[in-house]
Structures are given as structure tokens and as C-alpha cells.
Amino acid sequence: MPNAMSALIEVDNLVKHYQGVCAVDGISFSIPRGSCFGLLGPNGAGKTTTVEMLEGIKVPTSGSIRYKGEPLGPRFRHEAGIMFQSTALQEFITVRETLRMFQSLYDHGAELDELIAACALGDFLDRDTRKLSGGQRQRLLLAIALVNDPEVVFLDEPTTGLDPQARRKLWELVRRIKARGKSVLLTTHYMEEAYELCDEITIMDHGRIIAQGSPDDLLARHFHDVVLQLPKNDFSAGCAADLTVLDCGDSVEILTSEVTATVQQLLAGGVSLDRLRIRARTLDDLFLELTGKELRT
């Protein structure tokens, strides 16, 4: 049972069935106040269904979701902000007019000037929403999700399709949201994004939770080695008979907990280390280890 003391949202034994298919199979977790909580998983894992139940869009088959100790209701709807993965904006109106339209739906909310500054919208306030770049559109959608000054913000793959610069700008906005004491629930397929932003992550597969904890704790729990990367042309299999070597196409990855000994072994075998890279384990490694490498559709 989730700990209710510091939790903003508590999920207990949540289940969702669709015509004989169990999309979500008895999951439990809590989202602490003022934290960024990541919900990860491959396609078909059940995370989208879970988020839609948390947002109040879908009704669980069984189990409970509580917000500030109460079932989801009017209070939650007034205090939650949602940035959907795909949102159609009203055309032929400006960014400023869009914000005012959404602001009018609430009795109270964020100050528009503060919201415009926080989401860096000032340079294109009078631009038609049809003429926004991908990054500008995502910042506007984030501002819309924040227009009611919510206590909890749902971000569904907010940086999909953005270039690296625009993605990192959105990351900074998410950090500012959390710094104001707001809670964030993030779904993403970018493991680097989850590592950078999330205080805690939950990984789902086949409707169940398969891993849960802070990114660093999960990595420490599952891995006790590092990765040595070499171009395949520089590598000789004959000198690595007792090493764990993964074929990665144009390169190989050697998994080892004894870097010095492994490097010495490679040098003794005549392997050039001019293009050697050594990296720590990442959430990408963890995700693939837990959910497999097969393509999900």
C-alpha cells in the first residue's frame, strides 16, 4: 500500500480490463509532493492506460486512485494540468489569444505574464498558432497545462519530435515547475530525459510494474559493471575469449567490472585502444535488460 504521509497521488492495486485483455494488472505506487515521477515502458506495457486513469479520463476496472487522500473528483480536475502527447490547437488565433481562451475556463489560475515568461513565449505571442515551430508549440502546450496553476502536471511524451536544443529548453521548464513545489508525472521514451528529470521512475511491462526507484538506485541495483565500446574493426575476438562481448553492428561493447585488467588484456592481444570509449551503465541499458530488445508495435 502506498505511503499516504507525503503522497500527492496514491495508486492502490489498479486494474483495467478491455474485452478480456488485462491492460493494467494490479499496480500500486505513490507520487510524492514536489517530485517528478517517471512512468516508463515499451509500447503495449499499459502505461498510457495507467496515465489516462490517473488523469480521470478512463475508469479503472478495480483498485483506487486518491488525490490528497480523496477519490478523484472536482478538486483534482481544478488542480491538475495535462499536456497531452497530441493536442489540436484552435487555428487562426494567436498564442496570446489561445492563452486567454484557456484561462477563461478557470475561476483562478496563473498570472499570464508570469506564465509567458516562465515558458519563454514572449517572442511569438502575436503569432498564429499554425505558424509555430515544434519547440514553440510544445512550450505553448506546456503553458496551457499550467494556466490553472495546477498542483500536479501530467506530461505525456512532451519532447517527442523536438531537436536536442528544444528538448533541453523544455527540460529546464520542467525543472522550474518542480522548483515551485509542483508535482510532475512524466511519460517518455527518452531514457536520458527520464534520468535528467525524474526523482523516481516506475517501469511497466505487460501491465505490471517490473522496476521502481530512483534512477541511480535502480542502476546500482541492477548493474555492477561498466561498458567498454570499440569499433568492430579495432577489435579482435581472439583476445576476448573470457570477456562478455556484445555485437552492436559497427562496434562491440565489452561488459566488465574490472576495467584495468580488461584494458591490459586487450592491449596484450594487440587491440588498438585509440578509439576506446568507457561509459557507465544507463537507463537505456536497464530498459533493454528488463523489457527485451524486440520491437513492440
Describe, in plain words, how this protein is organized in 3D.
- With 297 residues, this protein is α/β, with parallel strands linked by helices.
- The chain folds into two domains: 7-220, P-loop containing nucleotide triphosphate hydrolases (Rossmann fold, 3-Layer(aba) Sandwich); 224-280, no CATH class.
- It has ten helices and 14 strands.
- The strands form three sheets. Strands 6-7-8-3-9-10 form a six-stranded mixed beta sheet. Strands 2-1-4-5 form a four-stranded antiparallel beta sheet, covered by helices on one side. The chain has a four-stranded antiparallel beta sheet with strand order 12-13-11-14, with no helix packed on it.
- The protein starts with 6 loop residues before the first strand and ends in a 6-residue tail after the last helix.
- The model is unreliable at 1-5 (pLDDT under 50).
CATH class of the largest domain: Alpha Beta
SSE class: alpha/beta
Mean pLDDT: 93
What is the fourth-level CATH superfamily of the largest domain?
Answer: P-loop containing nucleotide triphosphate hydrolases
User: Which bin fits the share of residues in helices?
Assistant: 25-40%
Q: Span between N and C termini?
A: 33 Å
Give start-end ranges of low-pLDDT stretches: 1-5
The helix tally amounts to 10
> What would CATH call the architecture of the largest domain?
3-Layer(aba) Sandwich
